[in-house]
Amino acid sequence: MIFACDLDQTLIYSRRSMGPVEESELVPVEKYEGEDLSYMTRTAYMRLRELSREIDFVPTTTRIYEQYARIHGLADGISIRYAIVSNGGRVLIDGRTDEQWDGLIREAVRAGAASGDEAMALFRRLADASWVLKERYCDELFHAVVVERDRIPHGWMDELASELSGMGWNCSLQGRKVYLVPDPVSKGAAVRYVKELTGASFVFAAGDSLLDESMLRMADEAMAPGHGELFRSYGSGNDGAIRFSRRSGIMAAEEILNAAAACNKTEVAG
User: Fold this and answer.
1) Model pTM?
2) What does 104-150 look like in DSSP terms, one character per residue?
3) Which SUPFAM superfamilies does UniProt cross-reference here (predicted)?
4) How far apart are CA 87 and CA 142, in angstroms?
5) Any idea which fold 2-106+185-269 has?
6) What is the pLDDT of residues 61-97, one digit of tens each?
C-alpha cells in the first residue's frame, strides 16, 4: 500500500496553523535558520514511524526540494524511499531526482500549457501590486506568490482560475501564498507514476488543498483534514469520494494516520 500524504497543514503544522494543543505533546520536525518552524504531535509522529515500516509512505508536497529537505523529522526513524516535491514536478527515489519523470513532466508542460512568463503576466494584470509581496518561479515549473491575503478581493481567485484555465494552468490559495501551476504538474500524476514504480495495488491519500485534489481523486481511499481549501469547498456537501476528519488543526493528522493504518490492516487481511 502507498500512503501519499501532503505535508503542510495535513501532516505537519506551524504554530499559526496548529490550533490548540498541549506544548508537551509537540515534536519539532522542521528547523530553519535556527528556529523550529513545523511540528507534529508525539502520537502522530510515533504512528508515522510505525506505519512507514509497513507501507510505502510517500511525502507529497508543493515544496521545492530545498524546502522539503529542511524537515529533519522525516529523516529520523521514518522509512521513505519515494517522495514527491514541487507539486508533482519532481519524484525523488532514495533522495535523488528520477530523471525519467523529470523529462516526462517537462515535455508535458511544454506541449500542454502556456509559458510561465505568460501565466505570471496574467497574474500581474489581474492583481493589485499593493498586496503582492514576493514572487518565486519554482523549479522552472510553477509560481508561488506571497500576498497580503486579507486584501485579496472577494471572488478574485475565481476570476484568476477562470482566466488561467484557458492557458492550461490552475491556481490555489494556501495561507499567504497564491500558487500558479500548469495543469500537467499535479500530485495525482506523480502519485500514479510512483504507484506504477512500486507495483502497489492500493493508494491511501491525504491532503488539505485544491492542489491535493488530483491525488485524492485517483486514490482508492482519500481523506482531508477538517480545515483548508478542500474542506471549505466540499466539507458541507461532500460527494463521498473524500472523507473529512472530525478534528481540525494539528490533531487532524492523528486521525488521518489512524485511518491510513486501518486501511493497511484491511489490505493485509484481504
Assistant:
1) 0.94
2) HHHHHHHHHS--HHHHHHHHHHHS-GGGEEEEEEETTTEEEEEE-GG
3) HAD-like (SSF56784)
4) 9
5) Rossmann fold (3.40.50)
6) 999 999 999 999 998 889 999 999 999 999 999 999 9
Do 60 and 33 contact (CB within 8 A), yes or no?
no
Query: Distance between CA 211 and CA 62 in Å, rounded?
Result: 8
186 close to 207: Cβ distance less than 8 angstroms: no
Question: pLDDT by residue (tens digit) across 128-155?
Answer: 999 999 999 999 999 999 999 999 999 9
β-pairing, 221-224 vs 243-244, is parallel
**What pLDDT, in 10s, does the model give residues 185-203?**
999 999 999 999 999 999 9
Q: Cell match 483548508: residue? A: 228
CA dist., res. 219 & res. 214, Å (int): 9
Whole-Å CA distances, 203 to 60, 129, 257: 13, 42, 14
What does the domain layout of the chain look like in residue ranges?
Answer: 2-106+185-269, 114-182
Write the burial class of residue 168 (CB in 10 Å: 0-12 exposed, 13-18 middle, 19+ buried): middle
DSSP result, 231-268: HHHHTTS--SSSEE-SS-TTHHHHHHHHHHHHHHHHHH
